[in-house]
Structures are given as structure tokens and as C-alpha cells.
Amino acid sequence: MATYSLPTYDSSNYQNNRPQYKDALVDTILEYHLKNPEATTDLAVDVATGTGIFARQLQRGFKRVVGVDISETMLQSARKASAQSSIDFVQSPAESLLFLEDSSVDVITVATGAHWFNIEGFIAEAKRVLKPAGTLAIFGYTGFAHFVDYPQCDKMLKEFGLGDSKLGPYWDQGRDVLVEGYRDYHRALTRSKWVDVIRRIYPNTIQGEPSTELPPVVAMVSDVTNNPTSQYYKTASDLELRNFYAAKASINTNFSIPTIPPTIPKVYEGSVARFGKDTAELAVSHFQGVIQSFFVGLIGAKRILEIGTFTGTSAIYFASALKRNGVKGNPDENGNKPVICLDISEEFAEIARDNFKEAGVEDYIDIIVGDAHESLASLEGQQFDVIFIDADKISYTAYFDAAIEKKLLAKGGLFIIDNTALRPAIQLIDCPAPLPKDKMPEEGMCDDFGAYHYFGRPIHEFNEYIRQDKRCEVVMLPIFTGVTLIRMLENN
């Protein structure tokens, strides 16, 4: 999936060769949508629009169409191909459509793209922005096993294209969601109490002719209630509520310095394009950035130390929060900027510096590249109100102790530790710590010893260490992959 976001990806070739959807599909969606007498056709939003193929087809049924995609590379081709249209194209992740108001959209479509999303997060965001009589239409070509009259050929192609010993392992994980006919979406939408959930598979794989009008999978749902915002809490899951509030209620639109820095989506896309989606997720999420910014304001922080910077997302949040606190940029009388970032990678640091400049916070942040153990020692004599640790997990305890030993945390300051509830640590619940050096996971409990060694074991030992540390008070927030807050007690 990350390939689509690469600047070198040939999106024009994609535009020219991607199969077109039949107009009958637009008619089917409109027919479903307009059976509700309250439905209107003012605005349709095509998410994961790619080069805008289906967005252009939607113009025949809606007064205004917006195409959304996380890839600026795709959107450049979309704008070029749609130059004669009135379609607006917006770069945004599907799970965070912050440019859309609550209850503002008539129809959301996703054409062979929903399998790349966080399902629960996208459903929650769709629920937020759809009007009370709105419709969500998800559809796509599964790509295999549709030779209705030739079952043997059907079987052979499926085995070659998806088999574990053939091409199967080379597909991105989201492909499974599509191959299963978006069954996971059907379950999630039903569980979330959306109404009139329809899932159809074309063609009929038992008998009959293949459909030439519709793609193999079409799933359509109406909105959950006639008043989705006021009734939201009655039906939403914990994850949906979290996404709702992260996307809306936690964002103060009156701030001159935005709650979510405007360049953050571009930072994420750049990370995806350069390193792939899995690595890009090293960055903190929007909501985590908002939470950490809130703590910066709460304690009136003026200086922040970040151990592990990646491409700069969290540092941008921190610097923006300091701006709201009235902290000025540029070095102080000792030559130190308000935010000091430590990272071992010059490549990451170079990207982060560019991102800081684009975000307008370069005067607030310095990056020290090198081994963090040595960098921490060099900071002795400085103090910070917040110390954020999000680096190699094996060194968490050492980083924590070094910061205390060098008296880097100011009185009344706060440690924020990321990733303290990573999945590989689950198998070690209730195990004593520190673990014996030769301690290995129980048979059948772990199929990835790298994850155990680099994540599970050190996180478990760090959690047990701070839990029993008489110098501090600890609370873990059970959000994301665990965020732990630590404050030092007065007599330490």
C-alpha cells in the first residue's frame, strides 16, 4: 500500500489502466440512499479516491463531490484528470476527516480501498460526519475466484494468487479484508448498530451469469440514528467514542495555534512514502499528540526533552503546545532551545528538521544525534519540565534512571513513557522482574522471539521497575499501546 504514496509511483499509469466502475453502481447507491425520504444529495465524499475515478462518476448524482486520499501523489493525478470538474480533493487519512463538520455529508463511498483502513476508526469517523439520513457505501473487486462457469480455473487462480506457498505472503495485510468480501466491515457495522446494513456479493458464485454492471462486493448502510451526535454515546463502542472525541470534542477551534498542527498529516504521509506504513506508525497518533500537548499546558511546561524523535511528529506537538504556553523560540542565554530531541539516526533527524521548518517550529527544537546514553550525560546541568521517552525499549530503564541521576527532570515535572502496554509483553503478566537472563517464553506463547527480546521482556521489566520504585508515583493510561505518566515524589 505504501507504494501508492511514493513520489516515484506512476499514478498517471494507474489512472489510465484502472478498471472503471459502471454508472449502474452510482444508480444503485442513489436508489438505496433516496429510499429514505429525509435523504438529500448535497455532498458526496469519496474516501481513498486515488486518482478520482469514482469521484468523477459521483458528479452525476450529487451537487458537490469531495475526493479524499492520504497520498498526495495520487491526488496530483486526480486534480489533473478532473481539471474540467468542480470536485475538491483533500489530503487526509480516512480515520480523521477533520476538515468535515459533524452531520454534513450525504453519502460516503469507498471504491476498493476500505481494506487499508483501521475499520473501527473509519466507521466512527464516518458516523460522525454523515447526516442523520446519510449512507456509507463500501465496494470493491476482490480480484480472484470469479470464474462462475469454470470452478476448476477458479480454484487454480485463487491458489496461485493467494496461496501461502505462492503469491499470498506478498500481499499487504489489508488484502485479506477485501478477499473476505468486506465481511469484517459487515460485522463491525452491525455491532455498532447501524441500520439497514446490506452486503451483496456479485456475481452469484453458485449459479447464474457474472454481473457486468456491479463490482463483486457492495456493502451499504444507513446512519445509526436520526440524531447521531446527541445519541452517539448510547451505541458507540469504546474505540468509536475515542475516535469521535479525538476528532472533534478535543479540538478547540478558537486557538490561534491549532490543537493539531496543520502539517502533521503531511509528516505522516512523508513517513509512509519513505519508510512504509508499518514504520510510519512509530509516530504518535493525533489523539496522543493532543493528550501530551494538554499535559504540557497543564503543568505550565517551558522545556521538554524527547528521547526518540523519528520524523518529528511528537516534537511538533510539543513545540506547538509551548507556543500556546507563551514560551518563545530561539536559544536562551545558555544557548539551549525549549525542546531538545535525542535520536540515533541522522536520517530521521534530517527529515525531522525539514518537518520542523515546514511546521514553523524550527526555532523551538534542537536535535542531538547519537547514542542517547551519551547524549543524556551531556545534558547534565539542564532541566526539563517534561521528559518523553519513546526510543529503544531495551534502554527504557537506563534512560529513566539516567534522567533522574543527572537531575534532568525539574521539580513538578512529568515523565511521559510511550508503548508501555505493547502486545509482546502480555505473555509476561505476573512474572517476577527482573527476569532470569535465560528466561524464554512458555512454549506456544510466542512465535516471534525478536518481539519478545526487543519489546516484550524490556517493557515488562520496566513496568515492574517503576511500579516498585519508591521515588515516584506512576499511572498507566490504557490507550494506544500504553502511555505511562510518572511524577517524582517531593523527597526525591
Automatic annotation (TrEMBL):
- Record EC number: 2.1.1.145
- Asked if the record carries the keyword Methyltransferase, the reply is yes
- The enzyme's first-digit EC class, named in words, is transferase
Q: What is the species listed in this Swiss-Prot or TrEMBL entry?
A: Coemansia linderi
Q: Source organism lineage?
A: Eukaryota, Fungi, Fungi incertae sedis, Zoopagomycota, Kickxellomycotina
What's this protein's name? Trans-aconitate methyltransferase 1
In terms of superkingdom, the source organism counts as Eukaryota
The protein's UniProt keywords, in alphabetical order, are:
Methyltransferase, Transferase
